Amino acid sequence: MGILLAGVVISGGLVYGLLTVRESSVNQSLSNTDKALEIIENIEEVRMIRKGVEKAGNKLLFMPEGEQNGEVTITLSEGLSDHLSRIATFYVDVPTAMVTVEDVVQAKRISIEKWKMQIRNDWGF
């Protein structure tokens, strides 16, 4: 299974592409970031978002933002023709596989269950 991570940085009118390709195999040990990506990719609502984004002709991007004390931050964005649109920021506690999500309106983290309900309502799933 391969995963493509991509991003675009615009600085001073120049566009820089960031690209990471990850190939995982049974024999290789996965990093915490790889484990967190697999957890996020297997959330049903994320798979439904991917279908909607791809149907619109865009790309769904998983962008690891960092790791602290076993917790990995991953931003999920839609790659549009001229910019990225953030969909969600996930915080994955890799040892426990617990996921929380940033609620930008309330400026706090919410449970994955609450996020799933919001996404199903907002995206019409």
Task: Walk me through this protein's architecture.
The chain is of the alpha+beta class. The protein has one domain. 27% of the residues lie in helices and 47% in strands. It is built from three helices and seven strands. It has helices at 32-41, 44-55, 112-123, and strands at residues 2-11, 14-23, 59-68, 71-79, 84-93, 98-103, 108-111. It has a five-stranded antiparallel sheet. The chain has a two-stranded antiparallel sheet with strand order 1-2. The two termini are 27 Å apart.
SSE succession: EEHHEEEEEH
Mean pLDDT over all positions:
83
**Assembly context of the chains:** single chain
* Strand ordering within the main sheet: 3-4-5-6-7
Helix content range of the residues, please? 25-40%
Task: Note the overall shape.
Answer: globular
Low-confidence stretches: none
- Backbone structural class: alpha+beta
Largest sheet, strands/sense/barrel: 5 strands, antiparallel
Structural domains: how many: 1
> Proportion of β residues?
over 45%
Distance between the termini: 27 Å
How large, in whole angstroms, is the Cα Rg? 15 Å
- Count of separate DSSP helical elements: 3
Number of strands: 7
Write the layout of secondary structure elements.
Blueprint: E1 2-11, E2 14-23, H1 32-41, H2 44-55, E3 59-68, E4 71-79, E5 84-93, E6 98-103, E7 108-111, H3 112-123
Antiparallel strand pairs: 1-2, 3-4, 4-5, 5-6, 6-7
Descriptors:
alpha+beta, 5-stranded antiparallel β-sheet, about 45% strand, about 120 residues
Compact description:
The chain is α+β, with helices and mostly antiparallel strands.
